[in-house]
């Protein structure tokens, strides 16, 4: 049913027969989800990614997915060194859990230089104009974003395909 973390059956002698006794350990009820360590991204943004909710039974599988979603969100924002982990504190008396999502944002990669090699049909300037990735300057933030970088590689392939190089 998903309500228990452990279920055991025990047989005991009972009035000339046996009694089957089920020993269950209920999953704790989530009382609070606390984000710690996030400075650059607001808690309200990260809370939108979390599907584990208060006043519901703790779902460890979903919690791991939520931690991964937060990590991927940080990576999309340029924090490639981010570390995200969870810690669960259960009050044994009330069987209520506090979930702590621990975030170490690390640093963001800033692009200092973009170097293009091996191009002959298209100039460096032509390639640089076609991509969204920009180096860090006074007017651009220049943070490395993996998703944008992958899109840029496709843009360069399309640029070359338009010049008659479909296998670029």
List keywords for this structure.
4 helices; 168 residues; three-stranded mixed beta sheet; 28% strand; alpha+beta
Low-confidence stretches: none
Helix content: 25-40%
Q: Strand arrangement, largest sheet?
A: 3-5-4
| Strand residue percentage | 25-35%
Q: What is this structure's SSE topology?
A:
Layout: E1 4-14, E2 17-26, E3 29-36, H1 43-47, H2 60-76, E4 83-91, E5 96-104, H3 124-130, H4 146-162
Parallel strand pairs: 3-5
Antiparallel strand pairs: 1-2, 4-5
Characterize this entry briefly.
The chain is an alpha+beta fold.
Structure characterization notes:
Strand 4 and strand 5 form a beta hairpin. This protein has a three-stranded mixed β-sheet with strand order 3-5-4. With 168 residues, it is α+β, with helices and mostly antiparallel strands. Helices cover 27% and strands 28% of the residues. The protein has helices spanning 43-47, 60-76, 124-130, 146-162; strands spanning 4-14, 17-26, 29-36, 83-91, 96-104. It starts with a strand and ends in a 6-residue tail after the last helix.
């Amino acid at each position: 049913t998903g309500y228990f973390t452990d279920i055991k059956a025990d047989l005991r002698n009972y009035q000339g027969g046996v009694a089957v006794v089920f020993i269950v350990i209920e999953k704790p009820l989530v009382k609070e989800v606390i984000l710690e360590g996030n400075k650059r991204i607001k808690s309200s943004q990260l809370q939108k990614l979390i599907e584990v909710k208060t006043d519901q039974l703790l779902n460890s599988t979903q919690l791991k997915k939520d931690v991964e979603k937060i990590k991927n969100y940080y990576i999309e924002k340029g924090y490639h060194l981010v570390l995200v982990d969870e810690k669960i504190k259960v009050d044994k008396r009330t069987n209520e859990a506090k979930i702590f999502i621990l975030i170490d944002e690390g640093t963001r990669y800033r692009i200092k230089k973009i170097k293009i090699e091996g191009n002959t049909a298209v100039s460096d300037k032509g390639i640089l104009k076609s991509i969204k990735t920009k180096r860090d300057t006074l007017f651009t933030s220049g943070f490395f974003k993996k998703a944008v970088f992958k899109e840029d590689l496709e843009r360069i392939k399309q640029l070359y395909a338009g010049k008659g190089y479909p296998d670029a």
